[in-house]
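hey team, just a heads up i'm posting the complex here instead of the shared drive bc the drive is being weird again. everything in one block, sequence lines first with there labels, then the predicted structure for the whole assembly after. its three chains so it's a bit long, scroll down
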Amino acid sequence: MEVAYIIETLIKIVVILLVFSALAGFGTYFERKILAFMQRRLGPMHVGPFGLLQIAADGIKLFTKEDIVPTNAVGPIFKIAPVITAATAFMAAAAIPFLPQFTIFGYTVHPIVADVNIGILYILGVMAVGFYGPLLGSLASSNKFALISAARAASVFISYEVVTGLSLLAPLMMVGSFSLIDFNNYQAGGIGDWIIWSQPVAFVLFWIAAFAETGRTPFHLVANDHEIIDGFGTEYSGMRWGLFFIGEYANMFFISFVIVLLFLGGFGDGSVLGALGFLLKMSFFFFFFLWTRAAWPDIRPDQLMWLCWKVLMPLAVINVVVTGFVMMF
Amino acid sequence: MMPDPVDFTPLLEQFKTAGLLKMMGDTPLISVHSNELFSVVTFVKEAMGFILLLDITAVDNLDMAHPTSTRFELIYLFRHKDFNKTMALKTAIVDPDVGVETILPLYDAADWLEREVWDQYGVLFQNHPTLKRILNHNEFVGHPLRKDYEITKGQYCTETQDMLDEMQPLLDARGLDMERDELMILNLGPSHPASHGTIRTLVALDGETVRAGASEIGYLHRGFEKSCENHDYNQIIPYTDRLNYCSALMNNIAFAKTVEDMLGVTLPDRGIFIRVILTELSRVIDHLVCLAAGLLDMGAQTNYWYLFNPRNDATDFLSKLTGARLTNSYMRIGGMTHDLYDGWRADLDDILKKVDSGIAQTLTMIEHNRIYQDRIQNISPVSAEQAIAYGFTGPNLRASGVPYDLRFDKPYYYYDTFDFDLVVGSQGDTHDRMMVRFEEMLQSIKIIRQAADTLPGGEFNIADHRIVMPPKTAVYNSIEGMMNQFKLVYEGVKVPKGEYYGAFEAANGELGFYIVSDGSGTPYKVKVRAPSFLHMAAYPKIIENYQVADAIMTLGSLNIIAGEMDR
Amino acid sequence: MEAIAFYLFAVLTTVMFLITVLTNHALYALSALAAGMIFISAFFFLLGADFLGAIQIIVYTGAVMALYAFGMMFFDTTRDVVESRTSPQIIFGLSGLAALTVVAMFTAPIISENITALYPAIDGVGNSQMVGMVLFTKFLIPFEVAAVMLLVAMIAGIVLAGKKMDHSLTLMKEEEIERETNEKAQV
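-- predicted structure starts here --
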């Protein structure tokens, strides 16, 4: 192993960590602003110009708040749970190519930490592990609302993991690789080559499942404030709670990247235009997460299960079968 | 069209001990022997058709100038199935520790009403299954509404009850066992994001399904009725603001109207029209708050602002008119503090336009939204019979398909001359409860527009200065004015001796004031018939076998206002 | 480098599974089990079997997740579970012996000869493709049998969770069954 390779990887890791931690912060700002404009109000306005420094204020608040571990909580697990959420969110980023490769000072940079040939599986697996954060946090909190949240987390995770996997199977069959770079290259020919045109059902299913995996409205059940206070977060305070938050927002960004890479051509041929388009497409999906939150109410847990097992999963299976037949003949 | 007077002769023929005491307006007050109470009430319900139990309360005669036969008397108020007739029964309680037979088997509504009487007056109801404190804390000693309980005597109560004494019989009745059926006891409230106000509901959960529920209220109990016995009539008006704080003006008006009826005076037309405009505006505000918060309970955030922004403008208008946004205290006995300000019409029209568009936009967002419909349809339906048995009134009763609205059934304040529709639902589920409110707002706006268009000029207060403060010029320049002011400030409005039940169609249902006057400027007793109290009593029953998420929505759609419920 | 990683993960995995076995606390046990499963996947990654590594994470986190769901329902996860062990020494000794025997049985023939890969990795062919080739050639029949078994399990699950769970013909009296069939015939 070359030293240069290790240094490059380390730099990439640090850059991704820094950029996405900051983006998670900005994500909350975007969310508040976008929601505010949709709801005819101004959102944060008082800290800094247009409330831009609100993130800093929030950060200071979270960091300086007293960190409380409830008496009956299971201390070690209670403490480690938020770290799992945040860590796995960033671990998933290792297999995502954030930009096409580019050359700087004569050195070619691949903006991906590890181009493993099973990238998609890896991301799915790590995101699955991410669900342990809320789950362990809830169970360790010794709080009944958290317990309900844990039950919801377990059932949502088990159900939607199935939909995610099955909906991805059809495009995987077409591309014949688990690597996100291969997916990108498969669609590099232009808009006409995008997988969304050949696999619209898979695209919609994966998109719906993405809402469940990130726990966003209308599937915001795991921490639905109106019913179960803050679910797994009920007993958390300060930065531990903040880590859950960072994990959630980082996940929203990463899943937006993944959707674009899988179905919407990624960064295309790797030109500057392609890279810009990539970021634009990603932003749209991030924006869509916020848009649905403004537009739709939440559904009930049993309705979520109904949707998963009686609608989405059969559709995904049929989609796989149809894709198989089309590919065979 | 006046309704036929109540024909109570069959009752008198059937029960020889019963006798007509007097007429309270057109409500007959019939005295009944306490031993016969249960059979009389059965007769009243089954043979005479008084199916809606309005209220149960007691009077402590300890301080009465003329001694009565017994210290405590119970008052039962009923409404006929035609909804335009009311009747009252009065029974003398020989010994409060023996009390009377409970009427719970006849009316589900009697459950909490009897508990409240026991809590406040210490009159026992035999065979009542859970006769325990409801408004006061479980550690409280004594019965605060007894005349010998000092108003200044506070008590420190610290321990919360675990409510299992109420939960266990419920579980037993359903054949459930905490251990065997793996139920989980969960406290929804008192400080839960979705318990509008401080309300505690203890639920036994099977998974996320509510198997049994019991509610504890009284967290906002401030002794409204005790305070009323120590203030004169006009001083009570600010207290009424705090009953249903979402539509404070309506409570002002309902109370003032009841006292005016006791005095036998009516406002000049301009005063009445102003009251109608403000009543309906308050109804709109109340429904806006209910729907905005109710929709927020399922995460429909944006609708909150679509509905709350116009509500904010409406409270700005009220602030401009009355000087306060929420607790207006604008009414007085015999009128109101001052006339509408110049340019009110333009402001009002502007608000109505905004409310209209807010409702339209919200409906666009939710009406054909599958998620929304799935969340609220067929959730906690209440049948018409059940709703009446629970003592529901107002939008919640109308949602069940019962066309009862005092503005139609017993019109006051020229409501029969306005062109508007009675809104009814069909299922009585959460969907209907919400949609009835949406439509009622539109009808209220129609009334406001008509009333504002035809607002007559002239005086808005009654001319009698024994009731209404004389103008300041008269106070400073004439001896009569001076005397009037002096008497009104020192003694208050003198209301003729007697008792009266005044009903008013408030935003949440029938808001009634049962007032006993001893002829002085201070009421001897005031009892509020708060619609939310009875809605809340039914709440733990109707959420059974629905999920936690549904229970939250149901609470929102019932529009429980802790201020009027806990008093 | 690889040796360091191997020993690190070996120690971590062993510790995690030790915690799983030794603790009285349901929550600790289950968390440690999940962590151990994830650490095992590190070995696959070290061996270049990326596909199996990722599958290890997905399957075992998923499977353990189900365990969690059950664990929550049966235990108060924040308390220690009281175990009734009469003589822990015997249990420990017996299980240790059994484990040793198993290890000896399987390693004895292998140690004697040189270890060679049955399906050596081919350069340029992806991990998942290789797994696929093996599965659909040499192990086709076990693979299909496993698939059928899963199908059976799925249908059984649906039947068990179905609505008529409490409707059991074996528990009904003859007349009841007869009446029911008559009713159905009439309809």
